[in-house]
Amino acid sequence: MGAASLNSRATAFTLLALANLFWAGNWVTGRALRDSFDPVTLNFWRWAVAVLALAPFALRGLGAQLPLVRRHAGYLALLAFLGVALFQSLVYLGLRSTAAVNAVLINCSAPLFILLCAWIIERERATLRELIGILVAVAGILVILCRGELAALRELEFHAGDAWIILAMPVWGLYSVLLKRRPAGLGGTHFLFVLAVMGLLMLAPLAIWLALKTTPRLPSAAEAAGVVYMGLFASVGAFIFWNRGVAVVGANAAGYTLYLLPTFGTLLAIAFLGESFGAFHAVGIVTIVAGVILATRK
Questions:
Q1: Is the separation of the CB atoms in 30 and 95 below 8 Å?
Q2: Which of 92, 121, 194, 234 lies at a CB distance of 3.0 to 4.6 Å from 39, suitable for a disulfide?
Q3: Where are the domains of the chain?
Q4: What is the torsion angle, in degrees rounded to the nearest 10, for the CA atoms of residue 235, residue 240, residue 242 and residue 243?
Q5: Are 257 and 16 in contact (CB under 8 A)?
Q6: 1 falls in which pLDDT band (50, 70, 90)?
């Protein structure tokens, strides 16, 4: 039983790491598409792609799940509002007017908000080792942000979009903690499909209103590819992996893996934006991973 539990935790953290990889790509893509779509429209089309991708798998057997969905409709609607409609719209709104480095720095506060929400709702408390792991991971992030020179931190400037991303962090914390109360009989694919459909319906009125106010145009191939990536990987893949990982290890432990996001973001920027890889990148990434392992290991 001990070996089975260890394998289950290892698999869960692998899924959580992949979720952060997909989300890192989402932040890069969201920043790239900031002038092509307004935040709500971008979020709407992202989840429209996700619903279309999930439908062939989720519609089978969904009828038998409808009584369970109706019994928990209010709870599911709350999760859809927090995780699908509100959180990512706030992030895309923030990415329109803030530097990527600021967004990554602010995103590192998400595990702290998960801890706070878990304490308020579930009365869970972080251990000393977990808190030390957070500090180690934050130190690694700062190494990357300042490019190995602490004096560079004084040059960081905050923009109007920072406030929107800060506001998004407790939204994600609340969503992650409430995941523990998901209906046990609702499978992962059905669960995500229901949330995606509900979130899409919430976004639709504002997305339609915004569409009526603008001149219609077809997106370019690159813009369409970015939205498809968001729908398939940052929505379907990442949310399934995150939800399953949280179910195994809990919201607090899963929250510490969010420190991997800036690490993956750095690697993606190097791979796709042609940025150079310096020694400070290696030091920062190793430090972040060490902090995550320290905070999450049994």
A1: yes
A2: 92
A3: 2-296
A4: 120
A5: yes
A6: very low
> Could you tell me which residue, 103 or 17, shows the higher pLDDT?
17
Statement: residue 34 has pLDDT above 80 = yes
For residues 196 and 232, is the Cβ–Cβ distance under 8 A?
no
pLDDT, tens digit (0-9, with 9 covering 90-100), for 239-259: 889 888 988 888 778 877 887
Distance from C-alpha of 114 to C-alpha of 164, rounded to nearest angstrom: 17
pLDDT tier, 230 (very low <50, low <70, confident <90, very high otherwise): very high
CA distance 159 to 36: 20
Q: Which residue in this structure is represented by tokens 């893996």?
A: 257
| Nearest partner of 156 among 107, 101, 104, judged by Cα | 101
Distance CA 217, CA 235 (A): 24
- In angstroms, the CA 155 to CA 147 distance is 12
Which of 109, 117, 167 has its CA nearest to residue 137? 109
Candidates 113, 109, 107, 103; CA nearest to 157 is: 103
Tell me: the pLDDT tens digits for 40-71? 999 999 999 999 999 998 998 899 999 999 99
Q: How far apart, in Å, are the Cα atoms of 132 and each of 54, 107, 109, 150, 249?
A: 39, 19, 15, 21, 19
- 119 in Cβ contact with 176 (< 8 Å): no
